[in-house]
Specification:
It is elongated and about 65 Å long. It is an all-alpha fold. Helix 6 runs parallel beside helix 8 and helix 8 runs parallel beside helix 10. Helices cover about 60% and strands about 0% of the residues. It starts with about 40 loop residues before the first helix and ends in a 5-residue tail after the last helix.
């Protein structure tokens, strides 16, 4: 007799393909403030913080944000001091502060720079993502600092918005993150733009003859993001190219010119 035939093994479950090689996963923004600085504030920073607190204490409830913005100018000369950075970070995530004041805090963190400010900006962006003015200020402040962590965070802002939201302002965050990356004109920022370009190319439907209304919404969103990438790359390279293939060839020939 023939040996018994074993039943076929059930098909193995395969996970959907992950991101392309070399494409990092979207970064997770920091949700915690950095540990307190070990050193006390400098004499100048102590005086500036005291003056800031004095000015704020004299502002009556209900007065407009102008007085608060004027008070923040007391910190302008010591933005690199970690104690001042932390105070600005506290303001940035405090929902009781006005949008104007929180926007100013983000801008001042960008002016001061440094890894500590970058961490607080990521935290602030997550906390204020629904507040357009504040979130936008945090996005551009990260680009101004120009830290590698900021490049990854900006790329993550776009990747988290590859599908359109009903909130048009939230969709706009992706465009601003792309524009912010384009201001850096640096190798890691261009690589991030090229990775995003590749991902957008892969996400667009190939057969447009049978698309639903929702499909067209997604397509319009992706085309908008691609246009923003083309504009950012064009400003970086000083030339106009229309396709991912053309930009890929340009990057292969020119990446040695960027640090």
């Amino acid at each position: 007799d023939d040996p018994p035939v074993e039943p076929p093994a059930p098909p193995k479950h395969e996970d959907p393909p992950g991101p392309q090689a070399g494409t990092p996963p979207p970064p997770t923004p920091s949700t915690e403030a950095p540990p307190p600085p070990k050193e006390p504030p400098s004499t100048d920073a102590s005086a500036a913080l005291a003056e800031f607190d004095r000015r704020r204490s004299e502002i009556e409830d209900g007065q407009d944000a102008t007085r608060h913005l004027e008070a923040m100018e007391a910190l302008a000369g010591v933005l690199a001091d970690p104690h001042v950075v932390d105070r600005l970070g506290e303001i940035l995530v405090n929902p009781k502060e006005s949008a104007q004041v929180r926007t100013k805090a983000a801008q001042m963190l960008g002016d001061g720079g440094g890894a500590r400010a970058q961490t607080l900006l990521e935290r602030g962006l997550q906390a204020s993502i629904k507040e357009v003015r504040v979130a936008r200020a945090a996005i551009y402040a990260m680009a101004k600092i120009g830290a590698p962590e900021g490049v990854r965070a900006l790329e993550g802002v776009v990747r988290e918005r590859m599908r359109p939201s009903e909130d048009l302002q939230d969709n706009a965050h992706a465009r601003h993150a792309i524009t912010a990356l384009g201001t850096l004109k640096r190798r890691d920022a261009i690589e991030a733009l090229m990775r995003l370009f590749e991902s957008l190319e892969g996400a667009r439907p190939r057969n447009r003859s049978d698309m639903s209304v929702d499909d067209w919404k997604v397509e319009g969103h992706l085309v908008t993001l691609q246009a923003a990438i083309l504009e950012s790359l064009g400003r970086t390279a000083g030339q106009t190219l229309a396709s991912y293939e053309d930009w890929g060839a340009w990057w292969a020939s020119n990446q040695g010119n960027f640090k």
